[in-house]
Structure formats: structure tokens, C-alpha cells
Amino acid sequence: MRAIPKRLLIHRAKVYGEEGGDWSGGEPKLLGVLEHIRAEPESRVVRDKNNRELKLSAVLFFDCKNSRSTAGEPKEDMLLELLGERFRVVSVEPFFDESGLHHYELGLARYAG
Question: What is the pTM for the complete model shown?
Fold first, then answer.
């Protein structure tokens, strides 16, 4: 399978979080940037790891060849600033091809914090 073409990876996002994983203390800290990604609107309901229903607002595509991250591997509960809004990553799905990991699809829910 070919990589997602860079011409389609038109978005950029800032990644926020708290060192130590505690969100109770003030403003989240900028951890890095995701570049050459693609965000598409989404309106499906999924369940999180605590079996709560969440409405996805967008799906983010992160290509393992053409996308770049200064914030490490994508993971659940990351806070993203994308297209002027904040989102929380509620699901991370890796997709593989014959040579290994091809891309990630991240389910995003609007962040109300």
C-alpha cells in the first residue's frame, strides 16, 4: 500500500498535555506538533475504555511515512488544537500493510475544558 500523499496531508495540530498525566493543575503544556496530517469531520458514536459513549467530531489521519510528530507516538487522551478548536483523542487505531505499520486513525471528540 502506498503512503498517503503529502498533498492530501494539509493540516497541522498542536499537542498539549500535562507531565505526569494529571489534568487538574492549570493550563495544559505544549508537548509538540503534528505536521502533514489530515482531519475529516465525523459524526459517529464510540465507546471509550470506561464504556462511556462519546460522539466523535473528527478523524485524524497520521501517515507513518509522510506525517511528522514532535510529541511522540499518538495515544489516547492527548489534547490537540486543530483548526482553531481543541479536541481530545478518544481512540487510536493503527492500520498495517504488508510491510508493517502504515497509518493511524485517531478519533477526536471536542474538548470542553
Answer: 0.86
